[in-house]
Amino acid sequence: MSSFKTIEWKDDRVLMIDQRSLPLREVYIECLMFEDVAQAIKDMVIRGAPAIGVAAAMGIALGAHKSKRKDKIEFLAELKEISTVISNTRPTAVNLFWAVKRMMNLVNENKDKDIDWIRNRLVEEAKKIYEEDISICKRIGKVGSELIKDGDTVLTHCNAGALATAGYGTALGVIRAAFQEGKRIKVIASETRPFLQGARLTAWELDKDGIPVTIITDNMAGYVMSKGMVNSVVVGADRIASNGDVANKIGTYPLSILSRFHNIPFYVAAPISTIDYNCPSGDQIPIEKRDTKEVTHIMGNKITPDVEVLNPAFDITPSDHVSSIITEKGITEAPYSKSLRALLG
Length: 345
Prior knowledge:
- This protein is of the alpha/beta class.
- The chain is about 40% helix and about 15% strand.
- The protein contains eleven helices and 16 strands.
- The strands form four sheets. It has a seven-stranded mixed beta sheet with strand order 6-5-4-7-10-15-16, sandwiched between helices. Strands 11-8-9-14 form a four-stranded mixed beta sheet, covered by helices on one side.
- Strand 8 and strand 9 (about 245-250) form a beta hairpin.
């Protein structure tokens, strides 16, 4: 486990580490109402597909717990409204919609129960999703660690660690597991403009856990690969299409091209809940466009002239650039349309 908590349910409220303040300050915020959770997801207080899924579940549970409705029909209508608000926070990470669907399925399957039963059961389910996520990430780490050799240097992009999950990590879970097995590994973390998740978050949590890490700017990846300084690339995912196309933080796609050119394995680590079996290819994955100030400003300081700015949060890596997809149920390889479907069996 990591030495900090990304999110937790405590004393009828949801606590989150404020990832916007890292690495300068380790601050935790309290979400007293479901609206607070929704805003935290929107504002990237919490981010990373699995962590967003956990937050979504806890947001619905918090809304149910704080509801003052005494009429069953009104209570169920309120839960539906809460689920809609949570669903509308961010469009790309499929774990959010997976968690909302799971929570609302529980409600719809138990409409005959009284309000208190539903309310308490939703809180239990949210806690269960939290615990499951940690367990799943540990399995991903154990499965994927066999791909990392003693002495390897692994390049990673964005943050797919404990901060992006309930507490262990997907891509960093693989790295963390390999390190815990005694393998002498090093990590190169790209800074990940414009939100700097690599420089601020990945470097912070790896350093906190004693795993050697070096930060590079995003445009240095080709250089370190050309110098033989990278043995493999491991990234997370916000959504994986049924054909194996991967939506991940902007900048992942060019890394896959560089990896392919330099014959470096390119691995994606993600839970099965990140696979969207209803999405045939990456062309159908919605790409979130974020506030242009994330590009024009750094730490509140403006760095650009007043010109047009483009700020897509994610890009699509084609499946034929992906060496393997690491899940809690095993390592899959092309053709992904078959190997990913086999995971459901």
